[in-house]
Amino acid sequence: MKRSMDLMIALIGLIILLPFLLLITILVKWKLGSPIFFRQQRPGLNGRPFYLYKFRSMSNEKDNDGRLLPDHQRLTPFGAFLRQYSLDELPQLINVIKGDLSLVGPRPLLMEYLPLYSEEQASRHLVRPGITGWAQVNGRNAITWDEKFKFDIWYVKNQSLYLDIKILWLTIIKVFRSDDVNIDEQDFEGTMRKESHG
Known about the structure:
single chain, 198 residues, 46% helix, globular
C-alpha cells in the first residue's frame, strides 16, 4: 500500500510540476551553470547505497589554490531560495519512482555517518528513507541530532498510512511557511560527530 501510494503521488506530482521543473532547470543552468543536478550517494533501505538527486544550489567557486570554497560561501541567493522552499528537493520524486526513496521516512544522511550510529540509531535504515519524515515536521534542522534520531526511531516503530498522510500534510504547511529551515543535512558533519553516540 505504501509503495503504491508513493508511486501514484510521485508520478502525478512529476506530471503536474513538469513545467515548473523545467523552469527551475533553466534558471539553475543560467545562474549556476552545469551540472544542473547535485548527485550524492546516501544509505537507503538496510543501508544499501543509492544516488540522491537535488537541484544544484551552490556555485563552483574556488580559492587561489583551486580548492572549492566552503559551502556557505558558495551558496548563492538563488540557491538559498531553492533551499528555503525545499525546491531543490523536487528531483527526489525520481528517486521515489525508482524505489530508492519513499515520500515519507527518515531522511537519508551521508554514507560516512554509518559507523557513528548506535544500534538503536541504525534502526532508521530498517525502512526506506523519505523525502520528508517525522523529524522534519517536528523541527527539521532546528533540533539536535539526538532529537532527530529519536523522531526517526519513533517513526520506524509507529509507521502507518495515516501517519504518512499526516506527515505529508504537515510538510506542505511547513514548506509554505518555510519553518525551521537552516541548511542541508550534509552541512552538519561536525555537529553529527560531536552529538552521535555511535
